């Protein structure tokens, strides 16, 4: 397998390390690399790492969000910073946000950023050289997510309520407008984009398939058959992505 294939590949969505698996993925990454200064981008109401782990690892752990009301929902023991992560660099520096993060991560957040490139530039600004920028995000490359982009927000929220009945839309699992800027499947174009913003690509995995039809068993079974075909043919109709970037040791920020 070539270096390019290792960095950019497709996998089954059953192996996606996001949602309930994301915390364990990040904890392993932090422990394995002895990371100490960690930023949770868009963590808002629901910080990804529990307070016991943060305390045990002696992490400097900051939760960032644009909405004060979301930050207020998070437990009080977290360090919380209200900021628009895609604001101009001058405004960003005025907040005196530290610039020595070992790790910045986001979970189901990048798709909501309209000024995606500026957000990544700010991530590079916050990270120390060699620091990691890790993101779990959806891409609109299947029918349900394409539909989400096309229909009014009120209608798409109603559909989510029906298909994901257990989701706390009024609490810590709220639904927000999605733009999907630079949230595509693994590609040479995206790798070049991230390199131009100050990063080296460590890994970009696109996950094919979804669980949106879970409450409609016959359709869900059909989707699984189609998923296997798409993977065999290496068709990048991805629902989720894992993106791991490393800030360049020198060069553009």
What does this structure look like?
The chain is an alpha/beta fold. The chain has a single domain, classed as Vaccinia Virus protein VP39 (Rossmann fold), CATH 3.40.50.150. The chain has helices at residues 3-7, 22-33, 51-56, 68-73, 89-94, 116-126, 143-150, 153-163, 188-196, 217-232, and strands spanning 8-12, 37-41, 60-65, 79-82, 101-107, 127-138, 199-208, 238-247. Strands 1-7-8-6-5-2-3-4 form an 8-stranded mixed beta sheet. It starts with a helix and ends in a 6-residue tail after the last strand.
According to CATH, what is the topology? Rossmann fold
Shape: globular
What proportion strand? Answer: 15-25%
Low-confidence stretches: none
Q: What is the CATH architecture assignment?
A: 3-Layer(aba) Sandwich
Percent range of helical residues: 25-40%
- Give the biggest sheet: 8 strands, mixed
């Amino acid at each position: 397998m070539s270096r390019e294939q290792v960095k950019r590949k497709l996998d089954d969505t059953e192996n996606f390390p996001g949602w309930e698996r994301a915390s364990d993925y990040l904890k392993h990454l932090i422990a394995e690399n002895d990371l100490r200064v960690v930023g949770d981008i868009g963590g808002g109401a629901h910080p990804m790492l529990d307070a016991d782990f943060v305390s045990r690892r002696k992490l400097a752990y900051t939760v960032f969000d644009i909405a004060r009301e979301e930050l207020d929902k998070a437990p009080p023991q977290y360090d919380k910073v209200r900021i628009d992560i895609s604001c101009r660099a001058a405004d960003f520096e005025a907040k005196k946000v530290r610039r020595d993060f070992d790790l910045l991560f986001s979970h189901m957040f990048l798709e909501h950023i309209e000024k995606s490139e500026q957000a990544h530039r700010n991530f590079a600004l916050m990270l120390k050289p060699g620091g990691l920028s890790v993101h779990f995000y959806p891409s609109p490359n299947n029918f349900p997510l394409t539909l989400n982009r096309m229909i009014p927000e009120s209608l798409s929220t109603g559909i989510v309520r029906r298909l994901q009945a257990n989701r706390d839309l009024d609490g810590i699992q709220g639904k927000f407008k999605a733009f999907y800027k630079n949230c595509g499947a693994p590609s040479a174009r995206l790798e070049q984009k991230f390199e131009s913003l100050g990063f080296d690509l460590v890994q970009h995995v696109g996950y094919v398939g979804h669980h949106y039809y879970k409450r409609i068993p016959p359709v869900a079974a059909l989707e699984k058959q189609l998923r296997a075909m798409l993977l065999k043919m290496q068709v990048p109709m991805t629902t989720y992505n894992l993106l791991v970037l490393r800030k360049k040791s020198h060069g553009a920020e």
